[in-house]
Amino acid sequence: MAGGGQFAWVFQSGFSDWEIGDITVIIYKETYHLFHLIIPNHDYIADAVSTDGISWKRVNNALFVGHPGEWDDDMLWTMDVCEVDNKFEMYYTGLQRKDRGVISSIGLAVSDNLVDWQKSSKKIFPIKPKGIYYETPEMNPRKWLSFRDPFRFVYKGDVYLLLCARSKSGLVSRRGCVGLV
Questions:
Q1: Structural contact between residues 22 and 37, judged by C-beta atoms closer than 8 angstroms
Q2: What are the angstrom distances between the C-alpha of 138 and each of 54, 62, 134, 162?
Q3: What is the pLDDT of residues 41-86, one digit of tens each?
Q4: What is the Cα–Cα distance from 125 to 131, expressed in whole angstroms?
Q5: pTM confidence score
Q6: 3-class DSSP state for residue 138?
């Protein structure tokens, strides 16, 4: 590691036992926060900070996989962090061990400061595909389900999540779609 704890290897690949996976960046009070996955483990979402966007310092991890039996006790995948009403929301993809990595779901964590995160206990989370528009495990010939990588946006005052999903019908190789929740 070069630069006294700063990681110059952000843009390198294959030079360590782990690599940075999917990222999201948010700027708050003139500080960049780069939330990212650690590959291959996917067991936590890490955070790094910078004031110039070039030199980065790892800080406390933002989120960890759930306890055994929780909906996200296996892996964490892509996240989206946004500021909402002077607080922060992190929408993220989680997998559960009992599903053997087949079903991905969407969860929510909240923070007042981008450092201390709490998983939401709102009853709508985790969000799972229901089969109305999107594939479910029962209709999936590939043995794994795409319902992941959330992105929050607001349109005419309504809040939506865009997701990587698959439609429930059509040629298996052509079912990829943008899901809307």
A1: yes
A2: 46, 34, 11, 23
A3: 889 999 999 999 999 999 999 999 999 999 999 999 999 999 999 9
A4: 17
A5: 0.84
A6: helix
Say if CB 64 and CB 38 are below 8 A apart: no
pLDDT confidence bin for 17, thresholds 50/70/90: low
d(CA 88, CA 81): 7
Name the token pair of 139.
Answer: 């209709």
Q: Where are the beta strands (DSSP E) in 72-142?
A: 75-84, 87-95, 104-111, 117-119
CA dihedral (168, 170, 172, 173) positive or negative: negative
Contact 5, 22 (CB under 8 A): no
Measuring CA to CA, how many Å separate 117 from each of 26, 127, 135, 148? 15, 19, 31, 20
Question: Within its chain, how far is the Cα of 18 from the centroid?
Answer: 18
Phi and psi, residue 53, nearest 5°: 80, 5
Q: Pick the more confident residue, 151 or 125.
A: 151
Locate 145 and state its tokens: 């389900």
